[in-house]
Write a structure and sequence with these properties.
Arc Repressor Mutant, subunit A; 5% strand; elongated; two-stranded antiparallel sheet; single chain; mainly alpha; 2 domains; 163 residues; 8 helices
């Protein structure tokens, strides 16, 4: 099977969560894990690569948490895949033309390269703003869930508690 890793899928769910909230909303890792049904430990491991790519921004301290590093309209699925998977290479000969002495004249390598470009172009055209606002009722339902979760008394420190 050819596909993305679980960490990339979970990273997309994390970024979608933030893109669904009002701009510059900061939340905790625990909140994202609960809202998107993800293991907290796994979410913690996603923060580093996403922050390094500028997709997320982190705030430390008593009012710490995470938020989008730039507007959702400027974050694409390709950005996310590049951050989490290190790019797209459907075959090793596409990413490294010196890996095969026949690659410069190989019709199969050319087909792999074309498919890679098509996939990259497609992923680059999909922003998290479009994903967050594309599904009928998604944003409203998400914000209602976020607001009701943030008001729950059992929650320590509301949505501004440390991540």
């Amino acid at each position: 099977m050819l596909g993305i890793g679980r960490h990339t899928d979970y990273a997309a769910r994390l970024v979608l969560h933030l893109a669904s909230l009002a701009e510059n909303t900061q939340v905790t890792i625990a909140e994202i894990a609960a809202e998107r049904m993800l293991p907290v430990a796994f979410v913690r491991r996603l923060i580093g690569p996403l922050s390094n790519a500028g997709i997320l921004a982190t705030v430390v301290g008593a009012r710490g948490g995470i938020r989008l590093g730039r507007p959702a309209s400027e974050i694409t699925l390709l950005d996310l895949v590049n951050a989490m998977e290190g790019g797209i290479t459907l075959n090793h000969c596409v990413g490294n033309e010196h890996s095969c002495p026949l690659s410069s004249h190989c019709p199969v390598q050319s087909a792999w390269a074309g498919a890679t470009r098509t996939l990259e172009e497609n992923l680059a055209s999909v922003t998290f703003e479009a994903l967050a606002h594309g599904a009928e009722g998604h944003v409203k339902a998400h914000r209602e869930r976020h607001d009701s979760h943030a008001k729950t008394p059992a929650r320590k420190g509301g949505h501004h508690a440390p991540a």
